[in-house]
Design a protein that fits this description.
The chain is of the alpha+beta class. The protein is 23% helix and 23% strand. Strands 1-9-8 form a 3-stranded antiparallel beta sheet, with no helix packed on it. Strands 2-3-4 form a 3-stranded antiparallel beta sheet, with no helix packed on it. It has a 3-stranded antiparallel beta sheet with strand order 5-6-7, with no helix packed on it.
Length: 183
Amino acid sequence: MAHATETTGTETTRRDFLMLATGAAGIVGAGAVLVPLISQLAPDAETVAAGAPIELDLAPIAEGQAIKLFWRGKLIFVRHRTKKEIDEARAVNLASLPDPQADKDRVKEGHEQFLVVYGNCTHLGCVPLGNAPGDPKGDFDGWFCPCHGSHYDSSGRIRKGPAPLNLPVPPYAFNADTKIKIG
């Protein structure tokens, strides 16, 4: 007489293995479907690159100091200008500038001491010097591009060299006396 094999609760059977394997395959399959679906819901690279506005506290920037930061992947210079730099920028004869623009049109009224400009030379996109202590500031106490010799004044206006345009001013606004929002 053949006798049946009995199993106890602790032994695994072929059926238990198949149930586990089927469950694992189901989880992997669900993940294979859900991961692309969820990643599709995320914003695309172009939207992420557009960047959100950033806020900056200007209080730590000492008079005469400039800082660099990035917004939308572009370099931004923020400079706390001295009274001497502001007076020099205002005294310039606009007719003598390659890209005439008054200093008052490049800063926010009531906050003339803070200048915010894009930080790439308008000639070939190099990064001008003039932010760090000891950097050459060019002939006009602003920025100097050593690559091709463009000189910018303390208002970011081109004064000498091959650059055709002033350093552009990004969109920004003051939220408080020492806080700005770029973008």
